[in-house]
Amino acid sequence: MTSEEKLWDSLKAEIEKETFELDSSLGSEIDELYENVRTNTKSPTLHDIQDLKANSKSPSLNAEAEAEELRIMLLGARGSGKSSSGNTILRYNIFNTDMQLSRVTQFCERASGNIYGRPVAIIDTPGLNKINQMEKEIIREIMKSVSLYKPGPHVFLLVQPVGNLTNEDKNMHKLIQNMFGKNVWNYTVVLFTHGDRLEGKMSNDVIASSDKDLRDFIRTCSGGFVFFNNKDAGNFEQVAKLLEKIDTMVAINGRSCYTKSFYPNSERKIREKQEKILEERQEEIARKERELEENYDDKDELERKKRELWREEDEYARRLAENPPRRKSLTAGLTRAPSSVTRSQIIL
Asked: Cα(119)–Cα(130) distance, rounded to whole angstroms?
């Protein structure tokens, strides 16, 4: 390992350590750190590292970079509080939090908002619990919804209640790694729900007194952890702290998002085919969108119909990518429209 690489590793360790003790007063410093990290993913030079150290304390902000949409994907078990946390972040109730089995999140859903003038998109996902034979369907639902978070999420927000890791938690972590690849933890922040149970205790003290498995897992996640009390949704300080941690992690990752290059080989090939199919269908999709615009005057209804259309297109492209036609050419297959557009749970 070169001296530059050692210095970069040392800097990364320092930043990761600081994320456990961030105070809201450090917001400007974290934002500046986010602005000044290089946008490429190549190994930084010594000059890059020195610039990062010098600039991380600067109070100035770059408005153009701030305007880039921050894409956050929620992951976790059913009932962990994913949807409630998404609502708390966006400050309005957009995701369904009804705990009845028939009402919980069954499809990937996307909602957008502005936080301090910054565009943020939340992608809620179905719970990764093993419910009979539904696990494969849930995994496929998450993986196929390319259009919702293209070119990729900036952060995976792993939501779980306060407490030591259970065997089910550990199995879920393995499942997530199998789905997204081993680099997923470099883009992960752990969000503990039920923060009201801290009862005045410091969050670091709670983690320090937890079992070794939980502590080791948190160290694996580059973004560290935060506590959320979704019963106190008006407490925006917890959201500000989360965004600070995300910005620090994104800075460490060179401001990159989690692209298909990180996925396991088999999934990466499918996603490449799916994206190519969607690209080749752009003209046809645009035509269908124009038809919707002609038929729907209500803006909200129009946007819902467009989301339904894209959900149908994602499903069609995924199916073709997984099982390409043998006798007919792919081009011929692309000329056929999806069978029908069914109403989805996708939300703008």
From this structure: 34
Query: CB–CB of 123/82 below 8 Å?
Result: no
For the stretch 14-36, pLDDT in tens is: 444 544 443 333 334 333 333 33
- Say if residues 314 and 346 touch (Cβ distance below 8 Å): no
- Total-model pTM: 0.73
Q: Name the CA dihedral angle for 55, 58, 62, 68, rounded to a multiple of 10 degrees.
A: 70
Across-strand partners of 115? 118
Per-residue pLDDT of 103-140, as tens digits, reads 456 789 899 999 888 899 999 999 887 655 567 888 98
Q: Which of 4-8, 18-22, 64-68 shows the lowest mean pLDDT across its residues?
A: 18-22
Q: Are 109 and 123 in contact (CB under 8 A)?
A: yes
SS (HEC) of the chain: CCHHHHHHHHHHHHHHHHHHHCCHHHHHHHHHHHHHCCCCCCCCCHHHHHHHHHHCCCCCCCHHHHCCCEEEEEEECCCCCHHHHHHHHHCCCCCCCCCCCCCCCCCCEEEEEEECCEEEEEEECCCCCCCCCCHHHHHHHHHHCHHHHCCCCCEEEEEEECCCCCHHHHHHHHHHHHHHCHHHHHHEEEEEECHHHHCCCCHHHHHHCCCHHHHHHHHHCCCCEEECCHHHCCCCHHHHHHHHHHHHHHHHCCCCCCCHHHCCHHHHHHHHHHHHHHHHCHHHHHHHHHHHHHHCCCHHHHHHHHHHHHHHHHHHHHHHHHCCCCCCCHHHHHCCCCCCCCCCCCCC
